[in-house]
Amino acid sequence: MSIDFHSSNNRYTYAARDADSGWATAINSMLAPSGKRVADIGCGGGIYSIAWSKLGASEVTGVDFSAEMVAAAREKSAGQPGVSFQVGAAENTHLANESMDIVFERALIHHLKDYDACFSEAFRVLAPGGKLLIQDRTPDDAHVAGSPVHIRGYFFECFPRLQEIEASRRPTDDRVVSALLKVGFENPQATQLWEIRKTYENFEDLESDLRNRTGRSILHELDDEELTHLISFIGARVDTDKPIKEMDRWTLWLAEKP
């Protein structure tokens, strides 16, 4: 069963951590967001909206199609100046024309069947010279082997059918670049980033994260019995008595509106 983003049971699944400082360093070097207006499309629980604000963005508007996610984001961002959230779709954000300097779409496009409408909307809301930054996993990113650092790889080693699901929904570089150029973006460039997802104090901390399927839509394809088996599978492959630093490999696409 796929994740229901509109269920109150999943309200906090994308709000339960903070963006890693390594991600912030990488983004700051790419875009220098200080003083910029940023739209975080598909913002979930606001993790990265808050991170953009901390990088000095003058205003950050998070947009998500789930009212539950928006509610969680508002809770999480309480007291963070210049951050607001609203319900809207990637294809229809309700943002004004040319009102943003940066549009950010993290872990969004693999949920979409078609990129054209989403990228056209980003193009519309960006001011001339504005940048679109997409962060998602390609099939190659998704198929990196499991290790005590790359926990996600164990999902597919334990349940190969998940790899088929993952491969079918992940964007290829060619497809993303083609769609960006089609709607008018220029100079699309792709880079890879290893991002620390979270550091767990011990295996019990990781186990809780996995059992709750926190921020991991792919785990909603497993029933509870299968999930228990996966947790045991991972537990046999990591040091359960020491902190566990989990990292994920991502592809970042950066393109400019002329």
TrEMBL record:
<dbReference type="GO" id="GO:0008757">
    <property type="term" value="F:S-adenosylmethionine-dependent methyltransferase activity"/>
</dbReference>
<dbReference type="GO" id="GO:0032259">
    <property type="term" value="P:methylation"/>
</dbReference>
<keyword id="KW-0830">Ubiquinone</keyword>
<dbReference type="Pfam" id="PF08241">
    <property type="entry name" value="Methyltransf_11"/>
</dbReference>
<dbReference type="InterPro" id="IPR013216">
    <property type="entry name" value="Methyltransf_11"/>
</dbReference>
<keyword id="KW-0489">Methyltransferase</keyword>
<dbReference type="InterPro" id="IPR029063">
    <property type="entry name" value="SAM-dependent_MTases_sf"/>
</dbReference>
<feature type="domain" description="Methyltransferase type 11">
    <location>
        <begin position="40"/>
        <end position="134"/>
    </location>
</feature>
<protein>
    <submittedName>
        <fullName>Ubiquinone/menaquinone biosynthesis C-methylase UbiE</fullName>
    </submittedName>
</protein>
<keyword id="KW-0808">Transferase</keyword>
